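Tokens in:
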């Protein structure tokens, strides 16, 4: 089954505020470059990889809606909606909820505590690795476990540059994840190593190039074109590697995973 994802065109993408260490109002986005990079990613997904790409319409006034991974966490027919920490993004939730309801989803839940969707919650087999504290509250993890009926493993992030879990952690395949160790507490690293047979450790250069903000279907992986070291390690493992430029989006603290919400096949064929 082809991978099914949700994206949003960067029609209104810009830096209008600073809510993470990457954002700088004095370092504006080039709309033409951002559009070109987004279209290259979209075409890679649809034409080269054959993935099923759904689109949510962009909304003026919400420049970060392009980062659809923050808009939900989808597990089967259940959708956990975001409870954004920063007021600048809180209005996005209504638009994501409306889109999911229009697609026929009925089991939707918004945690009472801060939770920023798949940006801070990554499914590996039957385990949900959930990050905190920069943008999501650990208290939300118990809510997710109850709603989704999955094991939730809390991972504490220690470096504000890696403010979402998906900036420092990649689900590679059923046996493997990749991560940047200095972004986590020792206890969190041990929790991952206890569960995952193969933990690939990225170096600082690849982590800062957003090489861990990657998207994989288990056999093929898409990551930043500047993350050369870990890309070669994936090739050595026999994976098909696709490197794409995302530096315009990294100005806002985002990459290809941020722009890609995994729907886990739910909408395929609709």
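Residues out:
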């Amino acid at each position: 089954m082809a991978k099914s994802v949700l994206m949003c065109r960067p029609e209104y993408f810009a830096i209008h505020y600073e809510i993470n260490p990457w954002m700088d109002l004095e370092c504006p986005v080039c709309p033409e470059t951002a559009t070109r990079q987004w279209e290259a990613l979209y075409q890679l997904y649809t034409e080269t990889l054959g993935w099923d790409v759904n689109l949510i319409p962009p909304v003026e006034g919400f420049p970060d809606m392009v980062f659809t991974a923050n808009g939900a966490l989808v597990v089967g027919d259940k959708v956990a909606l975001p409870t954004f920490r920063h007021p600048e993004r809180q209005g996005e939730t209504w638009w994501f909820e409306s889109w999911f309801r229009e697609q026929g989803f009925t089991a939707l839940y918004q945690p009472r505590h801060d939770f920023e969707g798949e940006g801070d919650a990554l499914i590996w087999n039957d385990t949900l690795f959930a990050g905190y504290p920069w943008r999501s509250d650990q208290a939300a993890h118990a809510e997710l476990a109850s709603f989704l009926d999955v094991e939730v493993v809390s991972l504490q992030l220690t470096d504000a540059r890696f403010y979402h879990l998906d900036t420092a952690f990649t689900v590679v395949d059923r046996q493997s994840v990749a991560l940047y160790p200095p972004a986590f507490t020792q206890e969190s690293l041990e929790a991952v190593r206890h569960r995952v047979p193969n933990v690939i450790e990225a170096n600082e250069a690849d982590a800062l190039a957003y090489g861990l903000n990657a998207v994989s279907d288990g056999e093929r992986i898409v990551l930043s074109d500047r993350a050369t070291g870990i890309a070669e390690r994936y090739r050595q493992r026999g994976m098909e590697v696709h490197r794409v430029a995302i530096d315009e989006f990294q100005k806002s603290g985002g990459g290809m995973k941020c722009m890609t919400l995994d729907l886990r096949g739910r909408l395929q064929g609709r």
